Structure formats: C-alpha cells, structure tokens
User: Fold these one by one.
Assistant:
Number 1:
Amino acid sequence: MALASRDALEFPESDREFLEPQLPPRDGSTPRPDMPFTTLTFATSLDSSLALSPGTRTVLSGPQSKAMTHYLRSRHDGILIGVGTALADDPGLNCRLTGVGGYGKEGLEGQPRPIVIDPSARWDFSDDSKLFQLCRQGRGLAPWIVTSLPELPVQKKEMLEKYGGGFLQLKMVTLDDGQHRIDWCDLLKTLHINGLGSVMVEGGAQVINSLLEPQSMSLIDRVIVTIAPTWLGQGGVIVSPARRFDGEGNAISAARLKNVRWYPFGEDVVLCGQIRI
Ligand SMILES: NC(=O)C1=CN([C@@H]2O[C@H](COP(=O)(O)OP(=O)(O)OC[C@H]3O[C@@H](n4cnc5c(N)ncnc54)[C@H](O)[C@@H]3O)[C@@H](O)[C@H]2O)C=CC1
Ligand SMILES: Nc1nc(O)c(N)c(N[C@@H]2O[C@H](COP(=O)(O)O)[C@@H](O)[C@H]2O)n1
C-alpha cells in the first residue's frame, strides 16, 4: 500500500452524501448513450470572477470546498480545461484525496484524465510542468490535448507519448478574430469513444462561456459552483455567457438553473443545479 502524503486532502463521508445525486452514476450509465456525463464546475467570486486577471492563478475555494472539488475529480473520468488555464496556472489536475491512486493507494485508481483544449498547440509544456511531475510521481495521468492541427510538433508529441498522454485532432471553426470554436457535441462524443464515461469542465472563462451558449448548454448534465465570499474587482476573468434575446428582440437571461441546491462549506457556498432548457 502506497503511503498517503502530507499534502493529501480529506473529504469526510458525512459531506459526500448530499453530492451523490449530483454526480455521475456509479454504474457508469450516462444520460445520453454516446456522450459522457458532463459536469460544469468552477469556483467564482461574488462578481463572477474566476481569477484576478488573465494569466493569474487565484485561490478562491476554502479548504472544505477545495476538498469537495477533489472529491468531484475522483468521481469523474476526465477533467477539462482551456489552454488559457494551462498557461496561467501550470495546474496539477489530479485528485489529491487520501485513498485514491498515488495518495494511499497503489496505481492510479480515482485519477481523472486531464484534457486541455489547445487549438493551435500554444501550451509549451515540459518535464517540469506540474502535470508531468505528478505523472512521474505516480500521482496523476498524462493529458490529452485537443487541437485543430493535423499533428502536434514532434517534440510535444513524443513527450506526451512518453508519459502515456496523447492528442485528439478535432475540426474547429476559425472565427474572424482568429479564435477557434470547437463543436462541443463532437468533442464530448470523441471523449466517450475514447473511454470517458464522465467529464468535469473546470474552465477557464472562455471555455465556460462557450459551453453555456444555446447550442451546447443542453450537453451539461450538472452545474456545481463554489461561491467564495469575496469580490475580486474589475479586470478579473469573468464568467458571463453571451446575451440572448427573445423573438421581439428583448434581452433574456443567458442561462438559468433548475433543481437548485445550496450547501454551505466553511465560508463558501456550493451551488448545484441543472440547466433549464
Ligand atoms: N476559479 C476557477 O475555478 C478557475 C479559474 N480559472 C482561471 O481562468 C483563467 C483562464 O481563463 P481564460 O483566460 O478564459 O482561458 P481558458 O482556460 O478558457 O482558455 C482559453 C483558450 O482555450 C481555447 N478555447 C476555449 N474555448 C474554446 C472553444 N469553445 N473552442 C475552441 N477553443 C477554445 C482557446 O485557445 C482559448 O484561447 C486563469 O486565470 C485561471 O486561473 C480556470 C479554471 C477554473
Ligand atoms: N475549485 C477551484 N477553486 C479555486 O480557488 C481555483 N483557483 C480553482 N482552479 C482550478 O483548479 C486548477 C488547479 O488545479 P491544481 O490544484 O493545480 O490541481 C486550475 O487550473 C483551475 O482549473 N478551482
């Protein structure tokens, strides 16, 4: 039995019960046969900010809600971010709960597959990147990179393969401003074909705002948001999907939740719900 490390997190049994109805079913069944159970989850400030400024890593979750997020990581097969988050945070994207693989258990059981949407291969990862350090320590899986390029540069491809990661090439639309747009349905189906029965989308803002657009929001099975009691102030990285309008041209809310539950966690509150279609 591998020893749990001092940085391992605890998420008590008593806190797990309320989350159960929000999580991917343990029997592996999915709401749609060809797609993973998809959870949108992130931590936000009171002014809908994910971070103080683009390119900055900002701690919002307190210790209890952070442990909850790691529990979510243990209950999903994949954890998806955009390249903006990879560049800003150099994230670990593993699960650091006591009792999962690498933290008290042999193997990598309970570790999610990191997935990074990186249309033009901007993420300049190396052996020193946190994610690959964790792979070497047997504490996390190597990432899959989703790109629009037919091939990754050879060096990147070789390094990914060395650690057991890979890349998925998907068609993306290129907008006038040079930004890429993935087809979420296509992406989720591809992840499912590659063996993922559940995926949690963590962010950042561009990823979340695009997933919350009318054509893709119905693909979200659950929303689980940690709200921290702080205003980050202007200039932050904001979650705010594009405006929507009714038939008469009046603005309507972009998205709304139903079946809402609120749970206090330390100083934070965790909001769970489903998208009202
Ligand atoms: N508080 C929290 O829970 C979280 C905070 N963050 C923070 O968010 C910030 C990063 O957010 P953003 O700058 O918005 O970057 P992002 O992580 O959303 O990545 C943006 C990039 O991802 C790609 N991308 C995003 N959506 C796409 C789509 N629909 N189709 C194709 N490609 C797409 C594009 O290359 C785009 O430039 C960081 O500061 C990070 O710390 C990130 C995740 C969670
Ligand atoms: N739940 C949550 N709370 C916060 O306060 C955060 N800043 C984030 N950020 C997300 O978690 C990733 C970092 O993961 P590691 O701790 O490095 O494993 C970061 O990249 C964001 O996706 N999440």
Note: DSSP finds seven helices and 15 strands in the chain.
Number 2:
Amino acid sequence: MRHIRIFDTTLRDGEQSPGVALSVPQKLEIAHGLARLGVDIIEAGFPITSQGDFECVNRIAREVKGPVICALARTNKADIERAAEAIAPAEKRRIHVFTSASRVHLEYMLRKTPEEVLELSEAMVRYAKEFTDDVEFSAQDVMRADFDFVKRLYEVAIAAGATTINLPDTTGYGVPQEYGALIRRIRDEVVRGRDVHISVHCHDDLGMATANALAGVENGATQIECTINGIGERAGNTALEEVVMALYTRRDHYRAETRIHTREIYRMSRMVERYTGMVVQPNKAIVGDNAFAHESGIHQDGVIKNKETYEIMNAEIVGRQAAVLVLGKHSGRNAFRKALAELGFNLPEEQLQNLFLRFKEIADTKGALETDELRALVESESVNTPQLFSIEQLQFFSGYGMLPTATVRLKTPKGEVTTTAIGDGPVDAVYKAISEAIELQPELELYRVESVTGSTEALGEVTVKLRLGEVLTTGHGVSPDIIEASARAYLDAVNRFVAGQASKHPPSLDEVQAKGAAS
Ligand SMILES: CC(=O)SCCNC(=O)CCNC(=O)[C@H](O)C(C)(C)COP(=O)(O)OP(=O)(O)OC[C@H]1O[C@@H](n2cnc3c(N)ncnc32)[C@H](O)[C@@H]1OP(=O)(O)O
Ligand SMILES: CC(C)C(=O)C(=O)O
C-alpha cells in the first residue's frame, strides 16, 4: 500500500480561524498530542507573524520529537531566515515557502508579473535550501490559475530543490474531478517520476475539502495537509479525522495508508475544541456527538441485531465509547427494552408496553432521555400499583398578582371527576383539586422536587410522603413539567395507599375514602 503523509496544519492554518488565538502552552500540548497521534509533519506556525509565533515554533522544535517540524515563509529572505531560526533545534525540519499562482493574486495582492513570481520563487526555494534539505513549495489559489503558469512555477521550484510541492486550493473553488485531474497532470507533466512528493491542501468553502483531498490521493498525491476538526481560514481545511478514516475504512478503494494511531483521534479533537473554543457540530463526521449514535427505532433495531447494519466503523477505533442508542421520540420498543435491561430492569411485557407509551409521550415533548432520566421514569412508573386514580387532564394558572388556580380531571372508580381549587401556589392548588376529586384529605409530610440530571431541560422528579390516618405512603412522579410530576407523585402515593390496604384485607373504595376523610 502507498504511504500517505499526514501534514497537520492545525497550529498554522487552523489557528487562522477567525477568533482563535492559542497560547504557547496550549500549542505545545497540541503539538505533543499530534506527535502521539502519529502525524508525519507538524506545521507549527508562521514565525515572521509575531514574536509569540516565533517562540511557539521554536519551543515545539525543541521539545516535540517524532514528526518533522515545519515553519511557513513567504517568498522573502526575512521570512525564511525567521522560519529557519525557529525550527533550528528540531531533529527533522522543513521550511514551507509559498507564493501565489492565480492572476488575481499576482495582479492585486503581490503586484508582480508572472516572470517576477517565477524568479522570486526559484531564488527563495534555493535560499531555504541553505537552511534545510527539506523544502516545501506552494503557490496559492492553483485552482483558479492558468495551468501553464502553474506548471512552470512548480518546475522551477523542483529545479531549485523543493522536495514537496503542495497544490493549495486556497479558495475552496475546486471540485473533485477537476482537482484530481490537476494533481494527475502535475504528476505526469511536472514530477515525471522524480523523487518529489505531491501534496494537497484544500479549503472547505463549498464543503468539498475532504473529497478534493481524496481525489488528489487517487491521482498521485502522497501528502495531505489537514487540521483537527477541519478548522482553518474561513470555512476551514480538510479535516484530518475524515481523510484518515476514509483512507482506512475504504482501503479497499484507495489502497493507501497513513501512520495515524486512530485511537488518539477523538482525544485530539476534544483538546482542539477546548483550546480553540470552536465547538464541533454534533453531526460532524467521526468526532461529532452524533457520529456514532442511533436514535431512530429502525436503525436501533438493526444495530441491536448486528452493528454492521448501520455502522461502517467501530467507535472504539477512533478512541470513542461504543456506539450509543439515544432514546428519543423516534426510538422503538426493541431499543427501549435493551436500554432497560442494561439498567437492570427486566419488566413483564405488559408493564414494559405501558412504560414505553409513557416514555414516548415524554420524549415527544422533551426530546431524548438521558440514562438517569430513564431510570427515574422506570422507578416511578414500573411498580405494579393498580391505577385506581389517574390524571386525564391538568391545567393551572399562576403568576405574580394572580390567584394560583388548578383544574384536574381524574379517572376514578366512580368515573371521570373534574374539580377546581385555589392554592398558595400551583402545586398546592393542584393538590387541593386532586384531594377534592378523590375525596381524601391526606396530609403532605414531605415534598421534594429535583431535576434528574441537574439541567433546566431535564425531567423533573417529585417525591412526596402522604399521611392518611396511621399510614405513611411515598409517591414518585416524573415529567418534563414539574407541576405534572407533582400531581403524578401525589396520585402515585394515593394509589399505593389503596393498594397497600388491599393487600391485607381489601377495603372498598368507600371504606378507604371514609377513612381518609376521617383522618
Ligand atoms: C493562504 C494562507 O493561509 S497564507 C498565510 C496567512 N497567514 C497570515 O497572514 C498570518 C498572519 N499574518 C501577519 O501577521 C501579517 O500579515 C504578516 C506579518 C505576515 C505580514 O504583515 P505586514 O508586513 O504588515 O503585511 P500585510 O499583512 O499588510 O500585507 C501582506 C504583504 O505580504 C505580501 N505577500 C503576500 N503573500 C506573499 C508571498 N507569498 N510572498 C511574498 N509576499 C507576499 C503582500 O503582497 C503584502 O505586501 P505589501 O505590504 O508589499 O503590499
Ligand atoms: C500557505 C498555503 C499553503 C495556504 O495555506 C493556502 O493556500 O490555503
């Protein structure tokens, strides 16, 4: 298999992301991480940019062992000297000299003729060679440049000693077939079998950076320039994790391999996310939160039966936890049953079906449930208490300057009962309305409300203790709405009270209500 070099430019092009400025310790830690990841080349910075950037590249060159340490330089002597000085302590060092290729860059930005750019490029590659044998040459914006000029530029760069020629699609203008064809022509018409690496550097302005880089590999490139999480100027660069995993997962197709220790990928992604403050989108390939999660019932059912139904790679291979089944409104019974079994609940089928309906009802309004929320739901609903009283409807009003008022419609053994009450707050109003509907006046000994996972979006879990005469009963209720959870907890306690009496000497409801009313 062909070896593809991974040239990581997180610390140079990646740091050019608007709003990102990494400190020296952060860059050093990222560089050490990149060495552990197994990248071949680290582009550590652009030393002429600032004293801070110089020092950073210099410290990385001193301290980070393994990869080639590379510094960027424009086609001028001052840049090259600064780059050479910064990387001098490295065991393996590279200077990356760049110019521009497109007419618009030459005319408006460099304000030079093509002949001047050719001359300067040749002279500056030669100059960089005085400091290191390993010189890379790039001409920005090759996709929008005249091919004959691009060809001449890279020919002079190779003649001057460039050992790697990089073809940057600086503006992300290329499409895979076109970019691949450019790389092929460079291979056939410029490199012509010489010992020079062809490198790809693609930007993601049209969302094609990864596809373009891979098209380059298919057509002769042996180096990919990329960044962790695809960060970089504007829409970013080719994402390291994407090209590496594409080459690995589709090695049957590309017949090429990298030296990346893939199990380090996720850790690096999180480190770069944390230090740059650039949050990885949930649906980002390989490293996004959802990349190995399944929510819909049909997918979950398939994955439970055989992971290969919906997974082309294992999460573990990129250093993540095994794929997770997210329990939300799209989930099915098989995934629900499995999740409960993993939590240690093996419920009878009928109970599981009822619980599933309640779960769907909650997930429909709240979204996916976390493990602790699922556990709370099961614990509050799975105990086989006969539902003598249950909520049909619940409505309440409260607010500053208003009388808290609640109306409940309950299913009771006497049929549907609707009552309204005023209270000191919405929960008090609901409890008074329920008490009237069930014709019992329990004393509330304890009322506790908690957010199951500690966030405001979490399920609310309410625990109550009610005293009915001599008997103390506990009830639990969960719901995204804490007033509803409170009503459920109250009725749960009442139903348990009734069930507890029934297990000894079944009283009639009239007896229970008479007892409750008397207490
Ligand atoms: C596609 C890329 O990612 S390229 C790398 C981009 N990275 C950066 O720009 C890093 C941050 N940059 C900086 O700190 C500054 O721009 C510096 C230190 C590099 C230069 O700063 P200044 O000297 O103030 O120049 P300024 O940024 O205003 O303009 C850039 C100059 O570089 C010239 N230039 C641009 N590319 C090249 C090149 N490849 N070779 C030679 N000169 C170049 C421009 O023509 C312009 O020259 P001018 O001042 O004669 O008009
Ligand atoms: C310096 C070059 C390689 C670059 O970053 C670009 O053209 O995008």
Note: The longest strand covers residues 443-451.
